[in-house]
């Protein structure tokens, strides 16, 4: 229990200072694109958050026609979901189901290959 408390505190603190956190061999946080005026997605949402059922809707807008990927990681950095979005633009919305996975904290990452944005999701 002490490990999980420490890990949660680390991730919470990192989110406050916009730092990048390394878990296993995966890094989460602003990444190299942080501070760059070019935002590749906007209005990035994951709701409901927290979720008690495991069902979560991921939604964002993207303007440029580029290949995007969505990944969901557990707290030890294991990728549990991967989806490649084809070249198009506009509103993206998808509901994912985490009910087959243990309750806990998950990281949702959207990337265009050079930049990434992340959201933390609580499954309680």
Describe the structure.
The protein contains one helix and seven strands. The chain is mainly beta and 124 residues long. It has one domain: Immunoglobulin-like (Sandwich), CATH 2.60.40.1930. The protein is globular. 15% of the residues are buried.
Key features?
124 residues, mainly beta, Immunoglobulin-like, five-stranded antiparallel beta sheet, two-stranded antiparallel sheet, 54% strand, globular
Strand content: over 45%
Radius of gyration: 14 Å
Examine the secondary-structure arrangement and name the CATH architecture. Answer: Sandwich
- Summarize the amount of helix as a percent range: 10-25%
Low-confidence stretches: 32-37
Structural shape: globular
Instruction: Spell out the CATH superfamily.
Output: Macroglobulin (MG2) domain
